[in-house]
């Protein structure tokens, strides 16, 4: 199981604070709800592409002694199953939808064309639900469609630059 932990810094800052296993340790197991905090259980590596970083990062794992399952603490800038960081995807979506750039102009040179198409399809498909979820964090803004509104709400809530 992966948990996004609230780390609001750069990849370099994340790598510096990773040495302390108690810093973001869950208070209880999120799977079996055991009251004992899980124990540090090493790392696994995953690749992340950010605006100023491209390479592998270690992700801390914890083991629940009760149910014997592991929990990974994924930093907030890295979404599960996606190689690109939240910032890279957000900059692409803003360039494509709000600045009306072409798909190839909005993508970074290292990103394949198909990846941009996938991000566009996923964001369009989930924009209405995202707006409803963000209503508690940010005031809905007037926009022509849910895509524009969701991007504006993500910017005002601080999730994207």
Structure description:
With 161 residues, the protein is of the alpha+beta class. The protein has 5 helices and 4 strands. The chain has helices at residues 11-17, 86-98, 103-106, 113-134, 146-157; strands at 2-5, 39-49, 54-63, 70-75. The chain has a 4-stranded mixed beta sheet with strand order 1-4-3-2, with helices on one face. A hairpin with a 6-residue loop joins strand 3 and strand 4 (70-75). Helix 4 crosses helix 5. It is globular. The chain starts with a strand and ends with a helix.
Could you provide a short overview of the structure?
It contains five helices and four strands.
Radius of gyration: 18 Å
Helix amount, in percent? 25-40%
Q: Approximately how much beta-strand content do the residues carry?
A: 15-25%
Helix/strand structural class? alpha+beta
Query: How much is the average pLDDT?
Result: 84
Indicate the low-confidence ranges by residue numbers: none
Tell how many strands the DSSP assignment holds. 4
Question: Helices, strands, pairings?
Answer:
Blueprint: E1 2-5, H1 11-17, E2 39-49, E3 54-63, E4 70-75, H2 86-98, H3 103-106, H4 113-134, H5 146-157
Parallel strand pairs: 1-4
Antiparallel strand pairs: 2-3, 3-4
Helix pairs in contact: 4-5
Task: Please describe the structure with a list of short key phrases separated by commas or semicolons.
single chain, 161 residues, alpha+beta, four-stranded mixed beta sheet
